[in-house]
Amino acid sequence: MDRLNVYTRVLLCSVLMSLLPLASCDVEYDYADNPAGNFEALWQILDDRYCFFEYKEIDWDEVYTQYKSRIKSHMSDQQLFDVLAEMLAELKDGHVNLYSSFNTARYWKWFEDYEQNFDINLLTRCYLEPGGYNIVGGIYYKIMPNNIGYLYYGSFSNPIGDGNLDEILALFTSCEGMIIDVRDNGGGTLTTVSQIASRFTNEKILSGYVQHKTGTGHNDFSPLTPTYLEPYRGIRYQKPVVVLVNRSSFSATNNFISIMRELPQVTIVGDRSGGGSGLPFSSELPNGWSVRFSACPVYGVDKQHTEFGIEPDIYQSMSIDNMLLGIDDIIERGYEVILQSAQAH
Fold first, then answer.
1. Residue 160: count of CB within 10 angstroms of its CB
2. What span, in angstroms and rounded, lies between the C-alpha atoms of 207 and 204?
3. Are 149 and 179 in contact (CB under 8 A)?
4. pTM metric for this prediction
5. Per the count of CB atoms within 10 A, which of 61, 198, 277, 312 is most buried?
6. Which helix (H) or strand (E) holds 316?
7. How far is 192 from 16, CA to CA, in rounded Å?
């Protein structure tokens, strides 16, 4: 079986991070633009570059055998897409997608199989109250009852200025503490993660580790390279902080949780996060479809994977009965944590 027949060039190229110097990021593949060629190209790109085969105990050769038999020369684009999408779902990775002009393959079981533990309408109606909160850079914020600062951030893709953060933290200075709600935050940019997290430490701290692929073998990785969080030089927050999370706290948000849990004044409350700790890269198939996949694993400070999520310090779910009464149990638990911490000090 020759998986490297030369027909059409397919370039593997990175699209997201320049966090580390990546070895051999311009590997080239040549395959025909037909169902078999596109299947071979997709399988080989992942075989060479996907970063979680060993950790997830995936037999990618067995996957090849299983799905190769379903590839037919006369199949339609839709039929081919469906088979390739099923194959990618074997990776159980929310960062893996296949993009065509008519559909996007995605793996969403990492949050669909769990309770949501968040209701944006309940939040805005019963806690923020219409017209009763400020908005800057995608952040909703206000001072809640019991003198607790509350900040909801729905995406780390929404840019926020340092001046905006100064204003928010200055407002919350007189509060007993603050809540940072990142439920349903699907991620964004790691620079924004560091920008916000740097407001809660007074010293440089270890924030985790990262690896990059050094070859095409499943275990060809660089040594673990430490990453650090530098404290912001301006306004920083010193009082108790609670970070609210749910299963849809994913990707860069997972990284934010991983960093914040290392800070002594921070408590993580809610459900296990969604994970997604592989830095995503992309490549293209001979037919022009694009594939995104996890290429570089990011670890916590304990050198453990966080691909499948991070446990909260305090588990708390939302009850349907209380939601009908306009009560968010996770926010209420956050209030309790801050008030208890304030009383203790």
1. 17
2. 9
3. yes
4. 0.91
5. 277
6. none
7. 14
Question: Listing from the earlier edge strand, what are the strands of the sheet with 139-144?
Answer: 134-136, 139-144, 148-153, 178-181, 241-245, 266-270, 314-315
Q: Is the dihedral of CA 199, 200, 202, 203 positive or negative?
A: negative
Q: For residue 210, give Cα distances in angstroms to 194, 214, 290.
A: 15, 13, 25
- Radius of gyration of the chain from Cα atoms? 22
Instruction: Give the pairing of strands 97-99 and 290-299.
Output: antiparallel
Backbone angles phi, psi at 190, to 5 degrees: -70, -25
Nearest of 12, 15, 13, 49 to residue 31 by alpha carbon: 12
Neighbours of 191 (CB within 10 A): 12
Which pLDDT value is given to residue 342? 79
User: Tokens 């110097």 correspond to what residue?
Assistant: 21
* 3-state DSSP assignment of residue 210: strand
Sort residue 138 into left (φ over 0), alpha (ψ -120 to 50) or beta. left
Tokens of 226: 């430490």
pLDDT < 50 stretches in the chain: 1-26
149 vs 141: CA distance, rounded Å: 8
Contacts of 163 (CB under 8 A, 6+ apart): none
Backbone angles phi, psi at 150, to 5 degrees: -130, 135
pLDDT for 136 equals 95
C-alpha closest to that of 46 among 102, 106, 97: 97
pLDDT of amino acid 73? 96
